[in-house]
Amino acid sequence: MLSYPDLPPVVISAGDRNRLQAIAQSFLEQSHPLAAPILQELQRAELHDPEAISADTVSLDRFVTYRTVGSYKAGRGLLIHPDDRMWPPAEISVATPLGITLLGLSTGDRMPMIGSDIAEPPWIEVVAVGPAATGGIARRASFTGRETSASFADRRR
Q1: Residues 1-54: tens digit of each pLDDT
Q2: Does domain 11-133 have CATH number 3.10.50.30?
Q3: How far apart are CA 118 and CA 33, in angstroms?
Q4: Entry pTM
Q5: Where are the domains positioned within the chain?
Q6: In angstroms, what CA-CA distances link 131 with 30, 58, 60, 128, 134?
């Protein structure tokens, strides 16, 4: 992991942590290059009850507007768990360098892109965090720490 002494705090819920641990474990078993960055961010993260997480903090199923520092062009997407894919053009998977970087940051936070193989990774800034998506999001149960229901892709088979 890159060593930057003044990285902003990462705040996540226990339920999100359980889902991210499962991704990291799966990535470890596959020797995936993002396994270590996800685990390092989870170790750095402060765990909070979902109700105690500020509305301006990026978490799963929340819209986020972000930009590369030095650029005026902003991007926007819904941060998702990869099993929750429904509309890929509007989503940012937490199992990507951008998704790992954004997770747990708050509006105004800046951080170098995590998991990038670029020697000098770009810094990403959270411009705004939108409301949590509701109604149409099909999430797997995460409150027990064990994933028991089938993913969207499995249900379609």
Answers
A1: 445 568 999 999 988 999 999 999 999 999 999 999 999 999 999 999 998 999
A2: yes
A3: 13
A4: 0.80
A5: 11-133
A6: 34, 10, 11, 10, 9
